Amino acid sequence: MNVDGVPYRSIWLNDNRISIDVIDQTRLPHEFQIRNLTTLGDACVAISDMVVRGAPLIGATAAYGFYLAMLQDASDTAMDAAYDSLYAARPTAVNLRWALDRTRTGLESLTPDERAACALATAREIAELDVDINRQIGRHGLRLISDIAARKAPGEAVNILTHCNAGWLATVDWGTATAPIYMAFDSGIPVHVWVDETRPRNQGASLTAWELGHHGVPHSLIADNTGGHLMQHGQVDLCLVGSDRTTRSGDVCNKIGTYLKALAAKDNALPFYVCLPSSTIDWSIRDGLNQVPIEQRDGSEVSQVTGRLPDGRIESVSIVPPGTRVANYAFDVTPARLVTGLITERGIVAASESALARAFPEESTGPAA
Q1: How many CA atoms lie within 13 A of 43 on its CB side?
Q2: Of the residues 159, 195, 269, 300, which has the fewest C-beta atoms closer than 10 A?
Q3: Where are the alpha helices (DSSP H) in the chain?
Q4: Can you name the residues that pair with 333 across neighbouring β-strands?
């Protein structure tokens, strides 16, 4: 996608071929910086500190991180240690485990001298697959936006509410929830996006608004609690969100606050769609509410905010009384009953085990807990 007219992806192999470049999302929206990753440790820190974030991008970064590890030490012991270190960086996003399993499986039968080249090839395959999958998600979701636009007066915008950042910054390119929006905008369909600020890390305000603005898509930033009011007053036509993990039964784990948007959409008879690549589906579990580990992050993400001062300095400030205890749950689970449909690379699928099994028969045959 575009940054001031220049096409970028969120991650790529450096020209030196022994390091990886990523867009540092902790610096956005105030500074656009590229961070260079040269070691396994760099990749782990980038994932855990949310320099990169979003389930698909976490998976791609893990695969490239595996490559960096194999450049340093490609022994069996180092391979297992790399897997464990990368997996521990952020365990909620299932793409992380999927990418690591895919990479390690391809390396196990090789000699140490062959492993780095294979790891790089696998990382590139995962990145290109992500781009293609998101493109397909965009095409399927575009139909929904086109249908809504056809029922509106000429020139009237389709109002879409999204949550957190499921844009191209959360993937390798296109995004999941934003892919249909970008395709609609690029094809000339009038669209307007309600962008949740998405506390506590403000990924909507700092990332979604940033990328939509640089691509030219009309949007308005809103406080997280505004969405229900907009739905009640007919100012939302469609909700599009992403997913960090979706169970085989269609429960969706996503950024904290997604569940509340789904409840409001249900109460106002509005379509609530989840856009996800099939790599985000965890076929090993059915019960999202009780089986998905919910990451609890540092309380400073809630107790502090970061912004740019009038003199240009970027500072973090406390917004709570000293000594205040903080609980910082990073995700919540939206039950399948609240999801209108899952927009996948194979089409729009009902949020149910039977529908997902029909769409992905090759994945759904294993046992589930």
Answers
A1: 32
A2: 269
A3: 40-48, 55-72, 76-89, 94-107, 112-150, 179-186, 203, 209-215, 227-232, 258-267, 288-291, 300-303, 353-359
A4: 253
The active-site residue out of 42, 173, 196, 244 is 244
Within 10 angstroms of residue 306's Cβ, the number of other Cβ atoms is 14
244 is catalytic: yes
Q: How far is CA 91 from CA 96, 136, 175, 258, in A?
A: 7, 27, 21, 19
CA distance 56 to 179: 13
- Sign of the alpha-carbon dihedral angle for 123, 124, 125, 128: positive
Whether residue 327 contacts residue 299, with contact meaning beta carbons closer than 8 Å, is answered with: yes
Domains of the chain: 2-129 (1.20.120.420), 136-359 (3.40.50.10470)
Question: What's this model's pTM, rounded to 2 decimal places?
Answer: 0.91
- The first and second tokens of residue 303, run together, are 């107790």
> 320: which 2 tokens?
């709570």
CA–CA separation, 325 vs 321, rounded Å? 10
Q: What is the pLDDT of residues 306-321, one digit of tens each?
A: 999 999 898 999 999 9
